[in-house]
Amino acid sequence: MSKYDVAVIGSGPGGYVAAIRCAQLGMKTAIIEKYSTLGGTCLNVGCIPSKALLDSSHHYDDAIKHFKEHGIDIPGEIKVNLKQMIARKQTVVDTTTGGIDFLMKKNKIDVYEGVGSFIDATHIKVTGKDATKIEATNTIIATGSKPSSLPFINIDKERIITSTEALKLKEIPKHMIIIGGGVIGLELGQVYRRLGAEVSIVEYMDRIIPTMDASLSKELNKVFKKAKFKMNVSHKVKSVERVGDEVIVKADNKKGEEVEFKGDYCLVSVGRRPYTDGLNAEAAGVKLTDRGQIETNAHLQTSASNIYAIGDVVKGAMLAHKASEEGSMVAEIIAGQKPHIDYNLIPGVVYTWPEVAAVGKTEEQLKEAGVAYKSGSFPMRALGRSRASMDIDGFVKILADEKTDEILGVHMIGARCADLIAEAVVAMEYRASAEDISRMSHAHPTFAEAIKEAALAATEDRALHV
Ligand code: FAD
Ligand code: NAD
C-alpha cells in the first residue's frame, strides 16, 4: 500500500493548490479526483467556462452595438455561431485543466482517478480507474459543492437546467427563465441575453445580488433593465413544470398574486450545496454540520485531528480564491507554520459587464453593527478613460471609519472592477486610511482613478472631477 504524508481528496482550486503547497513544503502528496480531468467545478464547469462565454458574448454585443460608433463598419450581418463559441470555451477549459496535470507532475504529486472514501482516519479506498488503497498521515478534504435546487423542482438537464448544462447549450433559448438573481443567474443570464434570448430573472429577495451592498444591486438592476432583462424581485417560486418543450414557472409576487412565466429553458441558480457523497466521512470520525458542511475549527481541522477540510465543502463564501487560500493555509498548518486568513478581506466579484466587486463591510452591515462611518463615491462616467471606451455605467464607493478614516469597505461597479478591487484588498490588508489612497498617484487615464477620487470624497468630500 502506498504511504503519503498528505492525501488530498478533490482537485478543485482548493484541493490542487493544497497539494502543490504540501509538495512545496516537502511532503509526499497524493491527490484523488473522481473525474478524468483535474480542476474541479471552477476549471471544468464554473469560473473558467463561464468567463469564456462572458468574454465571447461581450465581443458579439460590442460588435452589434458599438462598432459602428467606433467607426468600424462590418459588411454583411454579424451572426452568432453558438457551436463555435461553446467549442472555444471547451478549448479554454481543456488548456487550463491540462495545466493542472502539468503542475501535478512538476511537483511530483501522485494523481489517482477515482472516488476517495475513508476506510478509517488514515486509510482511503479509491474506487474507479485507479482503484487502490492508500495510507495517509494527514488528509485534506476538498470535495467542493454541487448545484442545489428547490424541493419541488425536477432538474431534467434538458429544459430545466443548472449552470453545468447552461454552459453547453446547443441552441440560444428564446426565453430563459432564471430562478435566482445571484451570481450565476446574472452572469449566465447576461451571456444568453447578449446572444438574443429574452431573459426573465425571478428572485426571492427584494433585490438582485442581495448579499452585496444595496447600492451595487440598484446600479446593476438599472443596467440590466436598460438591456431589457425582465426583472422580477420579491417573487417566491412555487412550481416549475415542463410541458413538451415549454417550461412553466409559477411564483407569488409581493402582493401574494400568482404570476406565470412561460419559456423554453429554466435555469435554476438558487445556490450550491456542499458535496460529501461517497466520502464515507463517518468512518474517519469526521462530523458534518446540520447544513451538510464538514465541521471544522478555526484551523480548518475536522473532528478527526489529522483530517482537514477546505473550500466549498466547509463554511464561508463559495469562491475559488477562498478555497485556494484555505488550501495553502492548511498545508502550512500541517507543516507546523502559523498562517492566517482574514475572511473579511476575501473579495467578491460578479463578472457581468459592468463588473461588480467588493471587499470588506457593506453599508447595511456597518449600520447594523452601529459603526460610525463616512462614505465617498465617484461615478465612472466622470472619467476620461470611461468615455474613451464607452463604459460609463457604475461608480466606486469607499466606506471609512468616521473618526480614524480607516477603510472599512470598498464597493464598485464598472468596467474592469474585477481587477480594480485588488487595490482595495491591498489597502485594507495594510489597514490604510481613505486619505492614504487619496494621496497615491494613479495613472491617467485609467479606471483606477475612480478609486483615488472616491477616497478623496470619503476623506474630505473633495473629489476633483465632479
Ligand atoms: P470544487 O471546485 O467543487 O472541486 C471539488 C472536486 O472534488 C471536484 O472535482 C469533485 O469531482 C471532487 N470530488 C468530490 N468528491 C470526491 C471524492 N469522494 N473522491 C474524489 N474526488 C471527489 N468562484 C469564483 O471565485 N469566481 C468565479 O468566477 C466563479 N464562477 C463560477 C461559475 C459557476 C458557473 C460555478 C458553478 C461556480 C463558480 N465559482 C466561482 C465558484 C467556484 O467554482 C467554487 O467556489 C470552487 O470551485 C470551489 O473549489 P473547491 O476546491 O472547494 O471545490
Ligand atoms: P447565489 O447565492 O449567488 O444566488 C442565489 C440566489 O437565489 C440568491 O439571490 C437567492 O436569494 C435566490 N433564491 C434562493 N431561493 C430562491 C427561490 N426559492 N426563488 C427565487 N430565488 C431564490 O448562488 P448561485 O448564483 O447559484 O451561485 C452559487 C455559488 O457559486 C455562489 O455561492 C457563488 O459564490 C459561486 N459563484 C461565484 C461566482 C463568482 O465569484 N463570480 C460566479 C458563479 C458562482
What does this entry look like structurally?
The strands form five sheets. Strands 1, 2, 3, 4, 5, 6 and 17 form a seven-stranded mixed β-sheet that branches. The chain has a five-stranded parallel β-sheet with strand order 8-15-9-10-11. A five-stranded antiparallel β-sheet has the order 18-19-22-21-20, sandwiched between helices. The model has no long low-confidence stretch (mean pLDDT 97). The protein folds into three domains: 214 residues, FAD/NAD(P)-binding domain (3-Layer(bba) Sandwich); 111 residues, 3-Layer(bba) Sandwich (FAD/NAD(P)-binding domain), CATH 3.50.50.60; 116 residues, Enolase-like, domain 1. The chain has 466 residues and is α/β, with parallel strands linked by helices. The termini are far apart. It binds flavin-adenine dinucleotide and nicotinamide-adenine-dinucleotide. Flavin-adenine dinucleotide binds next to strand 2, helix 2, helix 3, strand 4 and helix 9.
Write the layout of secondary structure elements.
Blueprint lengths: L1 E8 L5 H10 L4 E5 L6 H6 L1 H19 L1 H4 L11 H25 L3 E4 L1 E6 L2 E5 L4 E10 L3 E3 L12 E2 L1 H4 L8 E5 L3 H12 L3 E5 L11 H13 L3 E3 L3 E8 L2 E7 L5 E6 L1 E4 L3 E3 L32 E3 L10 H15 L13 E3 L4 E6 L2 H7 L3 E7 L4 H6 L5 E7 L5 E8 L2 H13 L4 H5 L10 H12 L6
Parallel strand pairs: 1-2, 1-6, 2-3, 6-17, 8-15, 9-10, 9-15, 10-11
Antiparallel strand pairs: 4-5, 5-6, 7-16, 12-13, 13-14, 18-19, 19-22, 20-21, 21-22
